[in-house]
Design brief:
single chain; alpha/beta; Rossmann fold; eight-stranded mixed β-sheet; two-stranded antiparallel ribbon; 8 helices
């Protein structure tokens, strides 16, 4: 074996230190500065809601944002933004849908004849679709792309982490101790892929009474601070159980939500990447 130069791209040897990159190039006409994945170890905790609100919050601060919906079998992003049309293909590539405030979206529901048509595909096919959303879609001038991930640590999350240049992840949880345990799996997967955890968001954290304005922890006491301390996560946020958020999501008007719950997290992300 020849002397190691630590440049695997020019080396044909197979050794324990070899690190191969599986990163895919974005479309030649795309311009994407930062990619942030929104993850959780299980479903039903509100990843799509958090993804949408993060993108909207960033957009309100003047940053150009987009959402890549990687939850191929359970897509919900188009409905939350009231997008019912289909993506348009040109000779150059696929054009993402655009929301009223100018955000760019891509989801499998923008390719289906009917939004209720099920996607009954095996893992490798689904992973290929996610790669296509990255390679074949023309993402114009994006400061922050948020990737709405499917639950768990299986094929698609692995595909995203290996194929896209993910800068960091935001982990979503809820107050139940069971969910908190599973959050550890998502955090450890990010660590295995050498991707920093930018923040931890606890959804359904409390209900604020409209009359007395007292906070009631419907699903039990919050565990977000102890989880953050256990995994060394500096930034946290708590989202309430709010009928207005549910209504905005159902009516496709998530861009109109009112609330500053995520501002601390978005400010920290902006601060981290402002020089890049």
């Amino acid at each position: 074996m020849s002397e190691c130069t630590h440049d695997c791209s020019t080396c044909g040897e197979s050794c324990s230190d070899r690190k191969e990159s599986f990163l895919e190039d974005a479309h030649i006409l795309s311009d994407i500065k930062h990619v942030i994945a929104v993850v959780s170890g299980k479903g039903g905790v509100g990843k799509s809601l958090v993804t949408s609100m993060l993108a909207v919050s960033m957009n309100r601060q003047g940053y150009r944002t987009s959402i890549l919906d990687a939850d191929v079998t359970g897509p919900s992003i188009p409905k939350m933004f009231g997008i019912k049309g289909r993506a348009v293909g040109t000779e150059d590539g696929i054009m993402p849908a655009t929301t009223p405030s100018g955000m760019q979206l891509m989801s499998v529901n923008l390719l289906l004849e009917n939004e209720t048509d099920p996607v009954v595909w095996r893992g490798p096919v689904i992973g290929g679709v996610v790669k296509q959303f990255w390679k074949d879609v023309i993402w114009h001038d994006v400061d922050y792309m948020f990737v709405d991930m499917p639950p768990g640590t299986g094929d698609v999350p692995l595909t995203v982490f290996q194929s896209l240049p993910v800068d960091g992840v935001v982990v979503v949880t809820s107050p139940q101790e069971l969910v908190g345990m599973i959050v550890g799996k998502a955090v450890k997967m990010a660590e295995m892929m050498d991707i920093p955890v930018l923040g931890l968001v606890e959804n359904m954290s409390y209900f604020e009474c409209p009359d007395c304005h007292g906070r009631h922890e419907i699903f039990g006491p919050s565990h977000v601070d102890e989880l953050a301390a256990a995994y060394g996560i500096k930034n946290t946020a708590r989202l309430p159980i709010d009928p207005k958020l549910a209504k905005a999501s159902d009516e496709g008007k998530i861009e109109l939500f009112a609330g500053d719950w995520l501002e601390g997290l978005t400010d920290s992300i902006i601060e981290k990447y402002k020089e890049q």
